[in-house]
Amino acid sequence: MKLCRFSLIEGLSGRVGLVSGDLVHDVTFALGGDLVAAWPLPRGDMLIGALPRLRAKIEGMAAHSQTYPLEQVLLHSPVANPGKIVGAPVNYREHAHESAQDQEIAHGRRIDGPEKWGLFLKAPSALSGSENNLALRFPHRRTDHEVELVAVIGKRCSCIQAQEAPDYVAGYALGLDVTLRGPEFPSFRKSIDGYAVLGPWLTTADEISDVGDIDLSLSVNGVLRQSGLAREMIMPPSELIAFASSFYTLEPGDLVYTGTPAGVGPIFPGDILKVSSNMLGGYEVKAIAHGSAGWVPGVWSGLR
């Protein structure tokens, strides 16, 4: 099943859809009262958490629901409310090599993988869908693209083993981890609004026979920059999820960005980024200049 969140270019918004070929079936009403919850709301994304019990209803409604061509809808992030966005640093060997060679990436640091560096968190407010432009906030600093496979957690888990991890995955999507280069901690530089793009939809885990076969590619203005297979990761998704769960309780809707293959590079206002996968679909985003230039070192002396 391919589940999306969408709105019409003119008209309805806040819809849930089932993607079949080039059509989106509006299955919003399948949610009914299932997602009603009393305050304080539970942590995580309620739709992702309810998906196992809603799936039959969603699939049954799709057969006779209103449909729209994909070209007529705006696709939002398929997960609305992740409690956590977990990132994996330098999880492909070729990317580790290019990071060691290009000190604008490493910023003078030795680059190690998740086994030594651990993982990092991006703010949930960084999440964006492909319907938005990518607003580059610091034009005077290098900002890079990083295409990534994203695992979406489906059930609450803590301290699980790698062999158990697939049982806790709702599905997969394509991520774009936008990275401001510089000396600050990764969580700070990578948590800018819109710098965690997710789309085009959630492909449920049952549709993926072998996660290692998922391919990822990214082009900028029609020129291929990145390409790789999930099986090339240093630490595969199941190990990353188990590793993360040993530090954090993972909740439905939490996102695990699993690292990027080689080929990262700078992007500039006006660039068109196309992210695609053989199993997960694809999307495009346009980079634009943010309305303000952002913080310039030395201007906010109170931060020193």
Question: Strands, helices and their partners?
Answer:
Layout (H helix, E strand, L loop, with lengths): L1 E7 L6 E6 L2 E4 L19 H17 L4 E3 L3 E4 L8 E3 L5 H9 L1 H4 L7 H4 L2 E3 L4 E2 L5 E3 L6 E3 L1 E7 L15 E9 L1 E2 L5 H4 L6 E9 L10 E6 L2 E7 L7 H9 L9 E3 L7 E2 L5 E6 L3 E9 L15
Parallel strand pairs: 6-17, 8-14, 9-20
Antiparallel strand pairs: 1-2, 1-5, 1-14, 2-3, 3-4, 6-7, 10-13, 10-18, 11-12, 11-17, 12-14, 15-16, 15-19, 19-20
Short description:
With 304 residues, this protein is of the alpha+beta class.
Q: What labels would you give this structure?
A:
304 residues, alpha+beta, 5-stranded mixed sheet, 20 strands, 15% helix, globular, disordered C terminus
Descriptive notes:
With 304 residues, this protein is of the alpha+beta class. It is 15% helix and 32% strand. It contains 6 helices and 20 strands. It has helices spanning 46-62, 93-101, 103-106, 114-117, 186-189, 237-245, and strands at residues 2-8, 15-20, 23-26, 67-69, 73-76, 85-87, 120-122, 127-128, 134-136, 143-145, 147-153, 169-177, 179-180, 196-204, 215-220, 223-229, 255-257, 265-266, 272-277, 281-289. Strands 1, 2, 3, 4, 5, 6, 7, 8, 11, 12, 14 and 17 form a 12-stranded mixed sheet that branches. Strand 1 (2-8) and strand 2 (15-20) form a beta hairpin. The protein is globular. The N and C termini lie far apart (50 Å). The relative contact order is 0.20.
Report the span from N to C terminus: 50 Å
The largest sheet is: 12 strands, mixed
Measured as a percent range, the helix fraction is 10-25%
Low-confidence stretches: 298-304
Q: How big a fraction of the residues is strand?
A: 25-35%
The overall strand count is 20
Rg over alpha carbons: 19 Å
Going by helix content, strand content and strand pairing, the class is alpha+beta
Apparent shape: globular
H/E element order: EEEHEEEHHHEEEEEEEHEEEHEEEE
Q: How many helices? A: 6
Subunit arrangement of the protein:
single chain
User: What's the mean pLDDT score?
Assistant: 91
